[in-house]
Amino acid sequence: MANLKLTNVEKTYGGSVNVLNNINLDIKTGELIVFVGPSGCGKSTLLRMIAGLESITSGDFTIDGERMNDMPPAQRGIAMVFQSYALYPHMTVRDNMSFALKLAKKSPAEIDAAITKVANTLQLTEYLDRLPKALSGGQRQRVAIGRSIVRDPKVYLFDEPLSNLDAALRVATRIEIAQLKESMPESTMVYVTHDQVEAMTLATRIVVLANKGIAQVGSPLDLYERPENEFVAQFIGSPAMNLLSGKIVETGDVTQVSVDHGNGVIAANIPSSPDMKGASVNVGMRPEDMVPVTGENYAFESKVEISEALGEVTQVYFERQTPESSPVIAKLQGIHRDVRSQTMRMSADPAKVHLFADGQSLLYR
Amino acid sequence: MAAIAGTKSSLTWAVHLSLVAMVLLWLFPTAGLLVSSFRTSDQIATSGWWKSLGASEQNLTLRTGGAADQVNRDNKFVIEGNLFGEASEAVISVWGTSSRSISDYSAGDTAELKNGETVTVQANGDYIMEHSEEFTGKRGQRIFATAKTPPEFTLRNYNYMLFDPTNREGMAKAFFNTLTVTIPATIIPILVAAFAAYALAWMDFPGRALLIAVVVGLLVVPLQLALIPLLKLHNEIGIGKGYLGAWLAHTGFGLPLAIYLLRNYMVGLPRDIIENAKVDGATDFQIFTKIILPLSFPALASFAIFQFLWTWNDLLVALVFLIDSTGDTTVMTKQIVELLGTRGGNWEILATSAFVSIAVPLMVFFAMQKYLVRGLLAGSVK
Amino acid sequence: MHPALQAVLTIVIGVGGCVGYFYFSNQFLDKVLFPGTGPNAGRNISRANMVRPWLFLFPAFAALSVYLAYPVIETLRLSLTERLPGNESQFVGLQNYQNMFNEPKFWEAMRNNMMWLLIVPAFSTAFGLLAAQLSDRVRWGNLAKSLIFMPMAISFVGAAVIWKLVYDARPIDQDQIGVLNALYLFFGGTEPQNWLTIPGWNNIFLMAVLVWIQTGFAMVILSAALRGIPEETVEAAIVDGANPFQVFFKIKVPQIMGTIVVVWTTITIVVLKVFDIVFAMTNGQWETQVLANYMYDKLFRANDWGVGSASAMIIMLLVSPILIWNVYNARKEMQ
Q1: Which CATH number fits domain B160-379: 1.10.10.10, 1.10.3720.10, 3.40.50.300, 3.90.180.10?
Q2: Confidence at residue B382, expressed as pLDDT on a 0 to 100 scale
Q3: Is B205–C54 a contact, with Cβ atoms under 8 angstroms apart?
Q4: How close, in Å, is residue B79 to chain C by CA atoms?
């Protein structure tokens, strides 16, 4: 039961190095918010400011309306799970889990009950008297999560909790976290990751951070289907969205575009105002949306340079038209043999075409 | 390396031999002192200690019994006995009756002396001396014998230096004085330094970098500079010379290394753990006592060993701050220096007292070498 | 009071006092001065956190100031003054330094100290490097290291006794009990030598003691450095056809040059302060004087605080390049 509100929050190190600017964000009770962004975008810093491990240079941060800027971490009603687990190496699992409760002067009976319950849920009962070094990576991560649960916090903070696990364990633990969230609908969680799959699968809403600020906030599919700008468009989805330069030739409910290295016109189901006519735009097409076409209206024509057959899909890398143009990649469904060195004409369904003017999507004009 | 094909075995041998040589060279002086401390003063003075390890060929000067021991047997005066006094495992090979010719006779031979006396010496030291007239000399006849004696060691020196209450040069008191200096001087700086090191490693405050630089600087300040000003200070505030002054001085002089070592170690502890403790609601004081101190045990142990060795082995601080004119508070190092002056030739005393003082650090060294090495690696300024 | 009892009491008072100080000053800060509850909780807590580092630092830095920082300044002052009867003193400028520079004993100490500075670090480092390299290549290397490292635990005074026995001389017609003379005669020497009284050479024999002690230190540090060298660089050199000596001198040594410098400077500092060995073995006689012993002589035998302090300042002066270098490096590393 906690609403988090960040208003005009800013972070500057040593008076000159600005890392975050103008952050405005509302997090509602029961949400699982994921911060993603390229490395160095400040996503961990933002989380640590929420935790109280970094001071807030300016702006306000409130939990349930109470200003938290100067509150030490322990008084904020939060629990945090670190990437490195941060288990106390000299304490047993039980002591690790009870440390915070003992500091809060809870009664031994209370502590015992809390630990027993959480240990049962996380299948840690038989490890309670072991030291962390006697546990596997997955078990350690479960202890770290369990340690935060016993405190029954209002807000859970996760700082890349799965990064130190191997691929298989990561999937399993990801699902455990999702189930954990299901079982605690009232708790608010903030989760930092650089892994898109984690973000897409876990998040209620994703916050994409870039250039010291928030690039977009939205549900996972929102970000995928309706990216606000070129950055988000290319950051979400893999391989990244292809951007092809072109010009608007017809405005209206459906915008018609001619692409520089294509032919004819391409339609996009995006409305545009009449004054946009003739404007330069970038046409965005996700690799998985691109299909070969036979007619004279196509967005792109080039020779296939490399093809990667993955079975379910075939990834096709096209030759660049000019040395400066960015490479174009298409993801074709199923198996395509002998596409190498073929010249192909590509386009996409008008519902799946994105248009960006000056980096911003026309959808949000 | 050993697995690489075609490695020459001659080189491997050279490596082994050079290392053996080096180890022996480094061990030899200490071994000498250790062995000497188990020998009697006579043994030390007459032969090198390295000869005492095997059965050694020794040139001994022995003496038969004097006139008082003679008996009259068949009109002959006879003195009988054993040259070694009691049963000994020494075996005499050759012998003589004057220092110029010490190998005239073999064991079992009979020598004729100038005035008609005869003397027969057996390999085991039994002798029989006969003369037709009565023996008169109070002291017996000197016999110069070359004998093979088995190694022989004694604990008498240690007994004398440590447990003999009549020995005014004994080491027992100095040993306890050293211990008295060492233990508080080891424990107190650790505690003081640990708090400061935590602040320098994990707390944010203006001037932190400067203070660390100050500590690094003080690390090499020669303590010679501190002698007179501090002695003056101690006299002015009434501490004078004594244990308190020595403890304070050792604490002050040990602090830079302690802070430096501990800070370097603490700064390497994972940040996440400390932050997690903060989120868990621990205050700085609790983080320090419940998380940092237990995790810093290796560094604490390293410094404790350093400080222990340093205070135990110290001479200068004791001379200046501890030992007053009564000499009641003398420590072992000072006692040994004094013995070097007054008993320079008495190696049984010197060797034993030196070994008494060396033994404890050596035990600490071999028991806790791991921590010592770790501390050295962390403590040498990079 | 019995000293042992006094020691126990000191430990209790010292340790208890320290713990008490830290605990109660923290309590005072958090509960009384800036209580972490009430309307100003947030502000108070951050204020308390600004004060707290100084609470933690205070005892240590108070001790450092009194026991190391103040003496440096006081020694400087003493070196510029002369003691007059009745606890008075008088500023005499550089007169003490002048007097000291006019003393041949001082120049002898300077000359010897310079020799110590050249020889001891060089040989300790070289032997240490040799021992490190050799012991890393044999299976009993750890044992060898332990034994070479062992003299580190022995006091300078103990070492002095050990080596005096090595250097002992007996009249020619007796069995030699000092190893050095025994070897000397065995290899054709004509008569036993009193090694510590031969001017010039005796310095070398004193230095040998310190080299013997410090080699272990150099070995431990350099051995760790050698092990830190990426194995691949050595393997690459072997594949390139380098012989073991080339691997050692052209691949390994250049990579641990930084550590060699550290070892060298650390031993240099030890050498500058060397006192016990000379004090116990020759006490500066037979031209073996060194600065630290010269200073001790002046301070406590001649009772001349002015010249004594001046010579202490000379030691400080010789140490300061290393001090500055260390501070410079430490600051660089922190950034």
Answers
A1: 1.10.3720.10
A2: 45
A3: yes
A4: 31
The residue length of chain A stands at 365
- Residues of C with CB below 8 A from A75's CB? 41
In this prediction, what percent of chain A has a pLDDT beyond 90?
18
CA distance A266 to A350: 8
Low-confidence ranges of chain C (pLDDT < 50): none
| DSSP 8-state symbol, C81 | E
Structure tokens at A157: 């903070």
Token look-up 């008075």 returns: C88
Would the ipTM clear 0.90, i.e. be above it?
no
Question: Dihedral through CA C139, CA C140, CA C143, CA C148, nearest 10?
Answer: -100
Interface test with A, best of C45, C49, C52, C334 (most A CBs within 10 A): C45
Q: Nearest CA of chain A to the CA of B183: how many Å?
A: 27
Distance from CA of A306 to the nearest CA of B (A): 43
Lowest mean pLDDT among A129-143, B286-300, C273-287: C273-287
Dump pLDDT digits (tens) for A186-195: 889 999 998 8
Does A67 contact C42 at a Cβ distance shorter than 8 Å? Answer: yes
Q: Which of A48, A89, A100 sits opposite B295 (nearest CB)?
A: A89
CATH 2.40.50.140 fits A243-364, yes or no: yes
Q: Quote the CA–CA distance of B70 and B249 in Å, as a whole number.
A: 69
Q: B369 φ, ψ to 5°?
A: -55, -40
Contact assignment for A72 to B270 by CB distance below 8 Å: no
**Cis preceding-peptide flag for A323 (omega within 30 of 0):** no
In angstroms, rounded to a whole number, what is the distance separating the alpha carbons of residues A91 and A115? 15
Helices (H), B219-242: 227-236
Locate the domains of chain A by residue range: 4-234, 243-364
Q: Classify A78 as helix, strand or coil.
A: strand
Each residue's pLDDT tens digit, C124-145: 999 998 888 888 888 888 888 8
> Of C56, C161, C164, which has the smallest distance from its Cβ to B195's Cβ?
C56
d(CA A200, CA A205): 9
Q: Which of C57, C147, C276 has the CB atom closest to B199's CB atom?
A: C57
Cα gap B304→A311, rounded to integer Å: 64
* Interface subset of B 295-334, CB within 8 angstroms of A: 295
Instruction: Say if B275 is an interface residue toward chain A (CB within 8 Å).
Output: yes
Q: Neighbours of B (≥3 Cβ pairs closer than 8 A)?
A: A, C
* Residue C230 sits at the chain A interface (C-beta within 8 Å): no
What domains sit in chain C, N to C, each tagged with a CATH number? 3-56 (no CATH), 98-334 (1.10.3720.10)
CA-CA-CA-CA torsion sign (B306, B312, B315, B319): positive
To the nearest whole angstrom, how far is the Cα of B55 from the nearest Cα of chain C?
Answer: 16
Alpha-carbon distance C200 to nearest alpha carbon in chain B (angstroms): 22
Q: What pairs with residue C155 in β-bridges?
A: none
Burial class (CB in 10 A: 0-12, 13-18, 19+), C288: buried
What are the sequence ranges of the domains in chain B?
52-149, 160-379
